[in-house]
From TrEMBL:
Protein name as catalogued: DnaD/phage-associated family protein
Assigned protein family: Belongs to the DnaB/DnaD family.
NCBIfam families in the record: DnaD_dom
Source taxon at top rank: Bacteria
Annotated InterPro entries: DnaB/C_C, DnaD-like_sf
Domain DnaB/C C-terminal: 166-215
Organism (species): Halanaerobium saccharolyticum
One Pfam family per UniProt: DnaB_2
Length: 247
């Protein structure tokens, strides 16, 4: 499998003493072409003629390349033909100049590709990080909810078991489900037994005997405050899934 990826190679490398050591190898000459062509559109003055140079092109001469690479005239021409046959470049020569064009220059011109790849990589990392963070947060939130529910369940059991004998009189007037509902409200609001009894007394006065009565009373109250001796609101009375606290 061939080499993959790219590196950013600065043109100042052409000024390095090691790079300038001659004669050039063929691979070095090829890289020298890549480093020498224009990376953006430009215009150059050639005698009395303004010549437009496209990205990936350079204007030179066979003689200049001979001097630059330490090669003979024949070797330079043969090398340019080799690159042409390999569909790596195209070139045209006349009496004044040689125009060399790197084919598919955008594949070698790494700046834009680098930025795009970096942005894609960064975006991917951000999305992955956000997704991971979202999943982590969801897991943490779910754990906290489960833990909170377990704590409430334990508190409810303790509250009910410690005060079960206090509710015997209410069982003669209302169902066990209603009493459990009052206990749950007290636990949810972190209130003592006195609060629970105040709720039950208020419901007794309102003639509430079962859960259906409680639902009806809660709906009719429309969030109005209860009597002064109870600081709860009727909208707090009906909390879904209270049955899970009966265990």
């Amino acid at each position: 499998m061939g080499a993959q990826g790219w590196i950013s190679l600065h043109r100042k490398m052409q000024n390095n003493i090691l790079w300038q050591d001659k004669p050039f190898a063929k691979g070095q000459a090829w890289i020298d072409i890549l480093l020498s062509v224009n990376h953006k559109e430009n215009e150059v003055l050639l005698g009395n003629e303004v010549v437009k140079v496209e990205p990936g092109e350079m204007i030179t001469s066979i003689r200049k390349l001979c001097d630059r690479w330490g090669w003979s005239n024949t070797k330079v021409k043969n090398f340019l033909k080799l690159l042409t046959n390999q569909e790596m470049i195209s070139y045209k020569s006349d009496t004044k100049k040689t125009v060399v064009k790197v084919l598919n220059y955008s594949d070698y011109q790494g700046l834009d590709n680098c930025k795009n790849d970096a942005k894609t990589y960064q975006k991917h990392n951000q999305n992955t990080s956000k997704t991971h963070q979202k999943h982590t947060n969801n897991n943490v939130n779910n754990d906290l909810i489960m833990k909170n529910n377990e704590n409430k369940k334990k508190k409810f059991k303790i509250f009910f078991e410690e005060n079960v004998d206090k509710f015997e009189n209410y069982l003669q007037q209302m169902s066990e489900a209603v009493i459990l509902k009052a206990c749950k409200i007290s636990v949810e609001k972190d209130k003592p037994l006195a609060y629970c009894r105040a709720v039950l007394n208020d419901w007794t006065q309102k003639g509430i005997e079962d859960i259906d009565d409680l639902k009806t009373a809660a709906k009719n109250a429309k969030n109005k405050d209860s009597p002064d001796n109870c600081d709860y609101k009727w909208k707090d009375h009906f909390i879904d899934d209270w049955d899970r606290f009966k265990e």
